[in-house]
Amino acid sequence: MSWQGWAFVIIAWGVVGFLFLWCFYKVLRGKKGEDNS
Amino acid sequence: MAGPRKREHWGSSLGLILAMAGNAVGLGNFLRFPVQAAKNGGGAFMIPYFISFILIGLPLMWVEWTIGRRAGVLGHGSTPGAYQSVWHHPLAKYLGIMGILFPLVIVTYYTYIESWCLGYSILSVVGQLPKMPALHDIAVSQVLKPFADFLSGYMDARTFMGGQVIIPSVACYFFFLVTLILNVWILTRGVTKGIELLAKFAMPALFIMAGVLVVRVFTLGAPVNPDQTPLSGMAFLWEPQWSALLRPSVWLAAAGQIFFTLSLGFGAIITYASYLNEKDDIALNGLATASANEFAEVILGGSVAIPAAVIFFGVVGAQEIASGGSFSLGFVTMPAIFSHIPFGMIFSAFWFGLLFFAGITSSVALSQPIIAFLEDEFGWTKLRAALTLGIFLLIFTHIPIMLKGALDEMDFWAGTFGLVFGATIEVILLMWLFGSRKAWDELHRGSAIKAPRVFMYITKFVTPVLLLVILGAWAVMDIIMPAVKTMLAKGFGGWFMGFVGAGVGVWTARLFMVLIALLFAWLIKLAWQGRENQEGES
């Protein structure tokens, strides 16, 4: 696989993986919602 | 008719997200996504895919959560009431027909497809699936023929009337009944003890099984040819073909994939969100749901079927398999591959097991809008509503089971056009008729995160335009162009004869959808009349 292929794998997996872990960290931390309106 | 009544609520945030993710994660994550990516530019496909996620996926996710929570607070869990909660116009409740009609039509055939996964999973364990012949010097189509024949015999054991009427195998019918009973049983248990409990078990199990399969695919080595390795499988999927970005069809495919994978426009997210409390977070939970779905799709879904196909059949074979479509990949190619590796029956059971879990968490979500409609607008108990739905499905699923062409017709109108049309209506109702600033405040009431304000403008201006572009492009490509081509080749008479003579299955499906739409219009009229009478009396 060329460096471009690797770049796509790393960026796509990185973005999706980070978003997934960050969201579940925030949810599982169980912080009560604030009124951000 | 009963007035507003106490509605159920989710037991926990995690349960809610797992149920929402269960709704979104379906067969498409593991079958449709890798095929679309492989056919539309490999790694380059991810550029329009992520752009569509930001411009269409995430905004619509938040739109549906916002409408749903607001509707739930006002005592409605389905789109007729939900739409009226953001647009106080008599027409709004009738526009809401879409959010109960489309999921009902989809679940009518989806439960059947889901039952194939259960059937194949059990048949894998008991060793009833075919075995793959030796791979050397033999065409891919020949290698896969026993599996294609097996699938054909499973679904279409006998045919009548020149193939128009189909009788499935006994095993196929048995697993359909088991799947239907399982769905109805879960629905009778309600939101917390049924849907949420299912999601808490099925979603972790799905992620574990998918993880095991990813590890197995990556450790396959090169069992057929030294050039066909897991790395070459990943290269096939991820190597960018930049020229693909110049093709509008690739952008359209990416937008469609984002739309389907997040289960937008079904009405199911609105119904699930209606079981939230007034100040429960929706901004973070909506984002978490979308991210869980993307994790299952991009990381897990992209690392099993297509890489495994390249390892066993090479790049040319995988291209042929990908062009055969998602079902061929899932139900023909994958069992063939599993039959060729040690303990393949266990991995095959895992593969179909994860597809079944992905399917059942989606089918209960597709069913819940109807349950909520009958509960909230007619005061039915969930037992009565679920059993009624069960009997309905038991009768009418025979249309896609037995009539050739019916399933594709239902999927075309309800599962493709209908959803994008429904989503376009939703975003206009919330962002234009309810008001974008009010919607933005509604989204952030009780929220654990603050969404960038640019999303308010994206949702108001960009998302509806893109949805209209998708609708227009599909209408041109799938309806107008084929009709024009036929008219040019055979004249208007030839086209008309083709239209009228589309087959018993196609016309039965069309009639079924129209009659159900009329039935819902009448039920909505009845429910609102009852509500008005009740308000008049009090």
Describe the protein in words.
The complex is a heterodimer of chains A (37) and B (538). Chain A is mainly α and 37 residues long. Helix content of chain A is 70%, strand content 0%. Chain A is built from one helix and no strands. The mean pLDDT of chain A is 83. Chain B has 22 helices and two strands. Chain B has helices at 13-24, 27-30, 32-39, 46-73, 79-86, 90-95, 98-125, 140-155, 170-188, 190-218, 230-238, 248-261, 268-273, 283-300, 305-323, 326-338, 344-378, 382-396, 398-402, 406-444, 454-500, 504-537; strands at 158-160, 165-167. The model of chain B has no long low-confidence stretch (mean pLDDT 92). Chain B is an all-alpha fold and 538 residues long. The two termini of chain B are 14 Å apart. In chain B, strands 1-2 form a two-stranded antiparallel ribbon. Chains A and B meet through helix 1 of A and helix 1, helix 11, helix 14 and helix 20 of B.
The structural class of chain B is mainly alpha
Number of continuous helical runs of chain A: 1
Query: In which order are the strands of the major sheet of chain B placed?
Result: 1-2
CA-to-CA gap between the ends of chain B?
Answer: 14 Å
Total strands of chain B: the figure is: 2
Overall morphology of chain A = rod-shaped
Share of β-strand residues of chain A = under 5%
Largest interface: A-B, 30 and 39 residues
* Shape annotation of chain B: globular
Q: What's the total helix number of chain B?
A: 22
Radius of gyration of CA atoms of chain B, rounded to a whole number: 23 Å
